[in-house]
Amino acid sequence: MDSRPITQALRRAADGEPGADDALWNLVYRDLRELAASRVRGLRPGQTLHATALVHEAWMRLSRDDTPVWENRAQFFGIAARSMRNILVDQARARQSLKRGGGRPAGELSTAIVDEVGLSDLDLLALDEALDALAAEFDRPSRAVMLRFFGGLEIADIAGMLEVTTRTVERDLSFARVWLRRYLDRA
Amino acid sequence: MLDETQKNRLLELYAEGAELPAAERSSFVERSCAGDQELRNELAELLSVSDSSLEGFLDEPFVAAAATDHGELAAFARPRSPSCAAEPVPRIGGYEQLVWIAEGGMGTVYRARQVHPVQRTVAIKAIRPGMDSRSVLARFEAERQALARMSHPHIAAVYDAGTDAEGRPFLAMEFVDGRPITVVCREEGLDLDARLRLFLQACAAVDHAHRRGVLHRDLKPSNVLVSRDGARWTAKVIDFGIAKAMEEPFGDFTLLTEQGGIVGTPEYMSPEQFEAPGRSAGVDTRVDVYALGVMLYELIADSLPLESARLRGAGMFGMGEIVRLEVPPKPSTRVRQRTSERPAPRGDRFRPVPWAQRLPGDLDWIAMKALEKDPERRYGSPHELAEDLERYLEHRPVLAGPPSGLYRIRKFTRRYRVQVGAAAAVLLSLVLGLFGTIHYLLESRTNEAAANRRAAQALAAQRTAEGIRIASNAALLAAESPNVALLLAVEASERTDDSAVHRTIHRVLPNHRLVGAIDAFDHPVREIRFLGDGRLVAQPFDTVTLVCDPDSGAILQRLTGHTDVVLGIAAHAEQPLLLTGSQDGTVRLWDLDRGDCRWIVDGPGGAVTAVAFAPGAARFVALAGGRIGIYDLLDGALRDTLDVGGSRGAFLSIDPEGRRLVAGHAAGGIRVWRLGSAELEWEVSRERLRMTEGFELRTARWAPDGASLVACTISELGERRLWGWSADGRPRFDVSGWSTDGFLDAERVLAFRDDAWGVLSAQDGALIEGHEVDGLRGLRGVAPDGSWALGTDPQRDFAVVGLTDAGPVPVGEMQKLRGESDKQSRHIHLSFHPDGERFALSGSRVRIWSIDAGYAPHDLPGVPEQFTVASIALGARSLALLERRHTDPPAWELHDLDERRRHAVIRPEGIRQLWLSPDATRLVGTSWATRSAPSGSDSRVVTLDLEGRILHETSMAPSRACHVRPDGVMALLAFDTPEGGTTGEVVDLASGAVLSSHRGYAVSAHWSGGPRFHSLIYLFGSRSRTEVLDVATGEPVASLRGPDGLAHYGTAVSIDRRFLAVVFGNRTARVYDLSRRGPSGAPRLLSEYFDLVRSNTYECGFLAGGRLTWAMCSNEVHVFESATGRPFTVLALENDCVAVVERPDGSEFLTVTRSGRVQRWTLDPVAVAKQRAVGALTRRQLDQFDIGTADERHEREVENLRSVPTVRNLARLGELALESGDLDGAIASYRAALALAPLAPQDRHRYVRLLELLCRGLARADLDPARRAADLDAAWEALREAVRCGADAAQLEVVPGIEVLRGSGRFAEIVPR
Q: CA-CA distance, A81 to A131, in Å (whole number)?
């Protein structure tokens, strides 16, 4: 994985260049997918890879480049968390379609990245929808929940990134959990 | 839908409500949402979501990031997960009952029962299924190797390695049934001294690993396990799982495990480990010192220096901030704080430590020094830390101390400077340089002498530490930059005589083949040429040409006169004449004996790019602007002018007979003229060369006999085609893919491709031979005798390659022959010294290399395929006797090691065993196949000369054993006695006389005591008793039982009969003094050495007349001082060592390995390093390796610059003078620089700079009139020269202070508008 284009994209995004955000997103997403795929290929049935570890690994690879990307880590983890969520959801979709008799898309991840989320594939798909709904209404709690559960960050890190206190992050997370639970229960 | 205000309100209210008990929530909702029905409904619904429905829902990130209590598992690595538990237990032959114990970064650890070949409990570490990627396997292998390199009572040993039923690798290690060191100390209530002694064991183990080039990097209590062995507590360091060889500390170290977890445990990670990967370049031994420091803190203060909860609560990034910035309280302060915080703690964890009174002072400072944020301020090694702790335990003053000590020492040195005299001045400067590295405790009550002593002691320790650091850095460069490594080792040797210095030098010397460097150039050197007399002509991209002495590096002549850069040079084959052609359009002929210019002629027009002498004719030619002028050598008169047809990339070449001249140009077209008549003989057009767009024609070359010509074309994309013609123009071949560096001989062309080199026939271009060598792209030149060549690698670096019948073979370790600074220079030129042993490579400097590294290993031929090394002897000649295996009768070959050739084949009749006498004058053989047991009736001992002729023969019939003395003069015969024991008789083989007789049953006996073998050593019982006899008198000299009944492996007596060395079964070597007795009558123990590694065989012996002892174990040879046990060096050989032999003059010794590799080692490494190191460390290197103080570096830079007075160096001196405010000095330096030669245009800025300095000087009011006039003249001169070099008005008018000149009309005259 070459982290250079990502570094450039990060820098451009930090400079507020139009379209840079999308470019960055594409790069990080592709990266994580490749990383996940390469890790997953080494797994045996029943084994798992941890989403958070993947995100952190991607980050460490990225920051190995000797550039001032540390300042951009909030952005990176935001995107990475979103990427991770997409990867997980894609995976769940793929498995669902497999169960329904659909063919396996070429190059799809063949093994679960995360098995012990405590969610079934269907739950995961529903959660994905719920997260979208939450994001539409409550931006900050949804970002906190993404960073925490898909980015695997500590409360303190999230607080730093969202520029709020840890107390607020804890409240946001608690709120988001309840809100999502209710959303899923209603559905 | 809620609006934004409502949403914010909802968030706030929810947070508030969620904290209330369920019963109070509904009234809270009613109360707070009065009047807003929508908000009320939302809030009520959210608050009513029950806790039970939330259980397990998003309550954890998809991976738990935080680890459990420290010390359980690698932090961040996931604690054991259900899927891991389900993981099948590996099946491994010979091991049973695998039980899961723990999980590390990449593997799982099981406890298991080994059933074969030994029954014991082991710890098995296996790679987790799915983790067996190449990089993991590589790391696993690295761990195995790291562990295999270590052998220490406090490091868990590796027993076995292999693969399981699934083919995954595993390691079987010593199972340490212990608890973490902190746990044991706490639970068993160990007192302070016991804790420190346990801790010292861990320090010793880590130090041992460091000395073997292994960092642990994850030291923490759970990796230092303590178990009870009777009344003793023993600590063992385990889990070198993330250990990485120190060899690559600047490598791609990452904090991540394969899973993405962070390697290491944050509480024990040093600040530098929290740096972003890629920035943590400086991770070295001090990482482990920090971790040890944390443990020490824990052991003495019963608490972590930085609290775990806070650290982990800070998140992945905050953690690093805390570790990097937060200085923990001193242990004593921490204990006091905690005692006051919790006056009556219930848990015993916070019980105030009973030794609280002992903490303030030394222990505080030792712990704090180990925990310094800046690695520079920390102890340099676990050894240093341990030494300080030992000092504390022995109530000696420690080196660590409060910062204020520094202030006191400074005051002290100031106060006593006069008394201490010159030494103190040095001390002062050094002490000031010590800032923060070592602190002193200088209590006010200390008297001057004590303070003085202590300061000197601290200073010495500091010098030693610095020396070891420099030596360690040098060792890392051993293969890549041997010369820098050697220079650093010499630097280190001035600070310490620690074995690290010797080890480094011994590691570097085999690679060191640089024999000289000439660094007197202002610009990269384009061309170099050895003259027939061995002088070297070097042509930099400059106006000046230099003639150098390659031995001393001295400049013999500076040929100055050209006013622009010289582009082509040619040396006359017979006479001391040199031609130079320059950009200034002229050609000069130089007399190299007189060093002057014979005459100057104008070239045929424009810059002269090439010149050549016509062999055998008094003519020379010069190429300029697509035309060739032919001149008379005697008077320089132009005889003819030839048209090449194009000027870009034009080249010319005269055949070695001087008959024809070929010329061509890049756009294509080759023309050949008869040189005598200057008439065009034949030509080849661009079309005939099939040169389409993008192709270029490169230089054409004549065969050594002038009968053939080759040329090659190359496209932009690197497609190559090689063409060959006969001298009269008949086409011979064209082959694609190849290009050439010239002919090997008249019939063979040396050609190369991207990936191979080959020899092509000059007749038809057919490939005669072709080879590939790993890492080689082609051969750039073949030495005059054809036995070796220089190859290039893809980075266009060079390697020496031996040319054998089987093809090219790299000579020694493939080494980068170009310097870092040469990478910038496009031209790299090679010239072979007429002696055939040396060659020079151009670059920013000229380096002279030798084909032979001197100390490079040399492989005996035929080993190991058919031969083994039977013996080695160094006497008047250096000989090796090789034995052909598996033949009956055996056959031997005698090799001369100095001449590196076979001396004789030896096949003595009826002899089954043969060896060299130690003085290498004869061979001694026996009719039986083992050294000690005669086989049957024909028991003969023979002495042969070096050609295999029998000199002497004895028959004998010992009933039990016979040990022939290696020189064949005596033998020890053993007989069974009727009582069931044995007796030994020493007999003279010549006369058969019995010299002495001894009783007792010995399992083994051997002769010792240097080349005269005056001592006989018997080993008794299960090799647990050694008896030494004097051969001459037959008297017992000593009887020795080792410690704990350990087996004695190697034994030896020194040549002066003073020392007895024994290697014991526990891998310690001891030296006893035979001249002194201990209380029990046994010889007195002098020294002990512990660092030996596990091996099947151990041998030992003495070097340097007994001063040094060597011990051989596996592939290592350890050398230590006999009297003190102080390590001298450790030699790592390629495989198992079979012999260590010293030269009779004591200058060096040889080692021989099982595979027949012979290597020389000097006994005076520092002297050899000083003699062989070329040049001096540059300022950049001094800075890089942090050598000396800033002032010292500055001084050394000035010294270096002064010693090589080039334009560049003098200008740099000028700038340094200016920095220190010395304008006159700067002007003087610049004027000296510019007086050296007319500068080339690219150097015009130097004239401009001088102009500026002079103008600044002229602006001074206090300048005396004579000086003013001189400086003014100099300024005008500088201005003229700047203009000659192409400076224009725009550039000159902005020179600061130029007003002094610009007012004059002269300025306008000189400076073109």
A: 12
